[in-house]
């Protein structure tokens, strides 16, 4: 058993090194005074100053943040409603079909999804820009929210709803006072997952952005094609740190939501 645990730990260490070594390498050279990634010549914050001094980059960052927040909020509302409707479907075959269709959208290649949205918006005559990016981000975020919320709905006992109705609660009160508070960890998980997916998405966004509108992922790609600049390192580092803050925020929210349940279990 100990040998297997050691092998598992070594495997995890190798995986984490492969995943995070390039990121830390990029972050390390974002402070390089020399301006190249061939040798570290001294510490500087010059590249971060260039990022914050670039008005265009700040506008693109705001565009990205607005798209992420709006698409995540809309996708959360639709996804929660969809998860509730799926649980109410009584026919097993219909329910499995809906779940399969939902999962297919998650595992489908982003290139195919992006190309499909491009063709769809072109046929409908929707101008590529803010609206097309928002709609596409909402669409690929909904299945993620459904996947996060569905287990919480399924584990909720129907006796809670029956008890609330026996006490005279209306359907609205049952939804707002019983169901939503119970599944709130799943709702928060779905929202934050949708938010991170939206912030990091490149492939789908690349297809549906138009002239005059861009997001950070597309902008970083455009800058990288022009040549190596440590401004890209600084910008990528800031995005990575912002994503970590989102994950930490979700962790603390989740811990606070689960604290009452732990206290009830101890009683």
Key terms:
267 residues
Radius of gyration (CA) equals 23 Å
Order of helices and strands: HHHHHHHHHHH
Fraction of residues in β-strands: under 5%
Amino-to-carboxy terminus distance: 36 Å
Low-confidence stretches: none
Q: State mean pLDDT (0 to 100 scale).
A: 83
Helix/strand/pairing class, anyone? mainly alpha
Sheet of most strands? none
Instruction: Let me know the number of strands.
Output: 0
Count of separate DSSP helical elements: 11
Helix content: over 70%
What does this structure look like?
The radius of gyration is 23 Å and the shape is globular. The model has no long low-confidence stretch (mean pLDDT 83). The protein contains eleven helices and no strands. It is mainly alpha-helical and 267 residues long. Helix 8 (171-200) runs antiparallel to helix 11.
List the helices and strands and how they pair.
Layout: H1 2-29, H2 46-53, H3 55-88, H4 92-107, H5 110-124, H6 130-155, H7 158-166, H8 171-200, H9 203-208, H10 216-226, H11 230-266
Helix pairs in contact: 1-11, 2-11, 3-6, 3-8, 4-6, 6-8, 7-8, 8-11
